[in-house]
# Entry
Amino acid sequence: MSVWTVVIWLSLVVSAQAAELFQNAKTAGADFDRVMAPLISGYCLDCHAGLDPKAGFDFSNRAVAFRGGESGPALQAGHPEESLLWQYIESDAMPPEHPLTAEQKQLFKLWISAGAPWGTDPIDAFSKTTEKRGGYDWWSLQPLRMPVVPSISDEGGRNPIDAFVVSKLQVQGLQPQPVTDRRTLIRRLSYSVTGLPPEPEEVEAFLKNESPDAYKNLVDRLLASPHYGEHWARHWLDVVRFGESNGFERDQPRLNAWPYRNWVIEALNRDMPYNRFVKLQLAGDLLEPDNPEAVKATGFLVAGPHDVVIPVSKTMRETMKQDELEDIVGVVGQTFLGLTVNCARCHDHKFDPISHQEYYQFAAALAGVVHGERVLPDPAYEKAQQELAQTKKHLRKTQYTLFDLESVARQRVLASRAGQKKTELPLAMTSPIAAWNFRKSTQDLAGGLQGTLHGSARQTEAGLLLDGNKSYFKTEPLKQGLSEKTLEAWVKLTNFEQRGGGVLSVQTVGGNIFDAIVFGEQQPGHWLAGSDHFNRTKSFQGQQEQDAIEKEVQIALVYSADGRITAYRNGKLYGKSYQSRGLQSFPSEKTEVLIGLRHGSPDGNRLLKGVVTKARVYDRALTSTEIQESAKWGGTFFSEAELVAVLSPSEQSKRKTLLREQAKLQAKSNQLQSIQPKKVYAAVSRNPAVMHLLKRGSVATPAGVVSPGGLKSIQGVNGDLGLATDSSDHDRRIRFADWVTSSKNPLFARVIVNRVWHYHFGRGLVNTPNDFGFNGGRCSHPELLDWLARKLIQENWSLKSLHRLILLSDVYQQSAQLDPEALKIDVDNQWLWRKSPQRIEAESIRDSILKISGQLNPQIGGQGYQDVKSYFFKGTQFYEPLDPVGAEFNRRSIYRFSARGGRHPLLETFDCPDPSTTTPDRASTTTPLQALSLMNASFVLRMSDKLAERIQQRVGTGQERQVTELFLLAYQRPPQPVELSTACDFCEQHGLSALCRVVLNSNEFLYVN
# Structure
């Protein structure tokens, strides 16, 4: 019984029968539960209950209520005038914002006068729904009903959906619209299922097909199209806030997040049962650890933003973890249950029956999830690793034998250089392919590579002087290509304030692609591995340079076959190595070496100010030992000619054999190293710590431990997962996934059915798809919702079966025609008396433009395209929008690299949502910017030209034929006579391409009736 019901009841009986309330000892407890408990729950317990009740007064518990709070005892049984509680109520001090009515006050007085008898103790604030909040009896929390399909009198209603809808319409005095015409129907269906318009030939074939199954067969064909998965995956990614960068202040890209997107597309196209679809997203890595597809699915859990800036303070770190956990709890609760569970982080939910403790039980079930990349199970990679280990073993044996032989030669060379024998030898000296000692000359001492001084660069006894005034050294193209490599240089800097000068670089001719030793570009005073567009550049997190002005330092960058980049300073590891996007290869005859210039032309901050004394380029990744030896011996190396000259013929022959074997094994090792494991940004599992309930959500005020669990309020499925407080992530997530996806969980089926309905009709049966709670929308057709939910379960959770059922209904096929009388009754069309027009989504606008212009690249899956220039500057990743040209960029928009800070101008104008937050229902605004974008965007201009070319190819010359073809491509109908005349006149004056732009900017192109 709600509080409002109590008030109405009391107003009728207060004069006579109310005096009997609470008087009978046998019924007083029941009177309390029926009358007072809902009243106290509705008006008092929001403040006076829980772990930290206001003024220390907890009104939910009898003993504590009598004891009172900070002001003393609250109740004097039988004496209301002496009770603080009554004094506050009578004076309207409590409740402070909404004082009680006279009838409600009278109830409190009668109750206290009767001795304040108590019933169920403690009072469960969630037991009943009131006018302020939902209780356990809230409609969406109840088990699925078994509604009887209504019997309707008219001839409409070819499937049960129509029967449910028409019965509601009859109650409202409304009539459904007739089925729409076939041209409208095929356009509507094609956009609804695939997000793309049909071709004129498809429309014509449908119009001519007189079979009674023509429409049904069309539905089946479109549901079988791979474009179905692409379109409906876009809806799903909106809900799960999928983005391909971390967000927050650094917003670094997630280069391996895309497999989750593709997994969603493929799962929908295969019609994976919805319960399995969800279970894999919650715990696929634990359920099927050897299945790469199951691991990809858990990308759902970490699809949201992730702050990579770790605070120094332990409290802040713990708070950040709780914030991230709240994000996961929020998206899981809203996506699958339609409940805002995350709202109970700091206190009991204000509107739904979810306690503060239950939030932490829910969070504990997901606490083992960590953001990160993980390697996918791959037997081929594991086999390659085993073979690599054996190859390296043989390589080391060969190298040791070669080293012993060359040690003899090096000692002979050193003896000849010094005139006497040396007892100490470099342990490991690898010959570079190019080497300079600028204190003596600009001659390449290793490979004879010719070079030229530019600008004011000078070779002196101190080394190569570079003053930053267009001064640098540049070589002719290398005779050999580079893949694995090491860049090494000895350098003194003029100052530490310079930002971005290149010490030693290799670049393709022209400088479009380069790898370089760079100083201070992104991080002042730090050494970096510079690269084109920062594609292979990250912070080494090394120490800030402090010595390179006073004395020269050795800097070496090692580029390994697996894409890892490692830096050394004076022979010691500089910071931490990191995994780049991949090893960049440089072709022979097209690769130059630069010293003093980062890349390209000598402009801006690319030039170094300092002195380079020595430089080395190696065609392989040196080991740490080799780098150390090079630093120790000041870059000493032994040329091939020197070594050969001091060896006997038999030693030379043996050395040639060993070198051939080494080269063969090294090549094989490089090839095997290049076989990298496939990685995916997905949930990384860890054994979680014990979860504490946190008072007011603060990590500083823990209040006892909680066990992982679900929600008590959802009827039909037990929220007690039977887990210990220290249970593993494996046990937690698997049991939690079972609880969420149970066929007995009424919300699980209701929510997805409503989502599917929402996207087909533009409005759900519940118009808040993520919120089935007290603050959400009320269900317009509850019997239909439950019938569809049961039908989904009966059909083995097949979403395509659900689509088919909806699409074959008369309700979906009816006309969008307006009825003035119906508008007066139901302006929002919640009773579905017509098919409401819908604007196509931003991505479908772009995809449709590509399709009708004949430029859509139909490639399915794979890594997406990138239409932003990404660069890292002053600690933040920036994404500058581009309009790249080429077939690889003409794929469907779902394959676009969706960085959270990289919004697309055209898509954003048409309400493409920010992937930082869940978007269950996209906005549909109308602004001048939309028309301006469709008239002036370079993409639209280019596609208008392509559309005009396609029309000319299809129908040749003749304005009437061209205009008609344009209408058929864009609108799926021929023009009306007045449209044809007007369009031909316009085309005569401005050309076909301009007319194409007009059509692309029209409402009929952007909306589906």
Observations:
- The two ends are 45 Å apart (CA to CA).
- Confidence is low (pLDDT under 50) at residues 1-16.
- The first strand starts at residue 369 and ends at 370.
